[in-house]
Design brief:
This protein is α/β, with parallel strands linked by helices. The protein has a single domain (35-177), classed as Rossmann fold (3-Layer(aba) Sandwich), CATH 3.40.50.2020. Helix content is 28%, strand content 33%. It contains five helices and ten strands, in the order H-E-E-H-E-H-E-E-E-E-H-E-H-E-E. It has a six-stranded mixed β-sheet, with helices on both faces. 5-phospho-alpha-D-ribose 1-diphosphate binds at residues 129-133. Belongs to the purine/pyrimidine phosphoribosyltransferase family. Xpt subfamily. Residues 32-155 form the Phosphoribosyltransferase domain. Xanthine binds at residues 20, 27, 157. InterPro entries: PRTase-like, PRTase_dom, Pur/Pyrimidine_PRTase, Xanthine_PRibTrfase.
Amino acid sequence: MQELEERIQAEGTVKPGNVLKVDAFLNHQCDVRLFDHMGAEWARHFAGKTITKILTIEASGIGIACCAARHFGDVPVVFAKKAQSINLDGDQYTTTVYSFTKQKEFPVIVSKKYLNPGDHVLLIDDFLANGKALRGLIELCEEAGAVVEGIGIAVEKGFQGGGDQLRADGYDVDSLAIVESMDPETGKIEFRH
């Protein structure tokens, strides 16, 4: 998606350790118009599929997923919580994922009330690096008896291989910007097309 690539080039910052900071428009300050355009692009890509729910992980994926949902007939957005809380009651699906950004494992939890057998789920997230977070969401869907219809990603770090592995496993992954390489010394970012 050219618009997203241009924003990454103009406002993204490459940090040591394969970190791409895009917090000015994607995952701290949110550009809702950009999110809307991203949702329209995913709706075009996944047009032939039945989507009954969109699933993401808190917190950065929530805004993107909510904007995208408007393009899928206002389907509900469910987000996996990263910590147990008193608001989570009843039966739950739980797994553990490793976060590349936070460099730690954390639980992801979805109430069984909101992820059901027969749901057709679109997974949405802001970043895809090694694919561990998405694998956790897929595991939750499998446990619930829900079908993963596709995966929509804003920014994929193609050089980390998570997206390629998910595609090899048969998942329809639509990443709107795939970073092929990035250099913290020069700030140069190259995209896969």
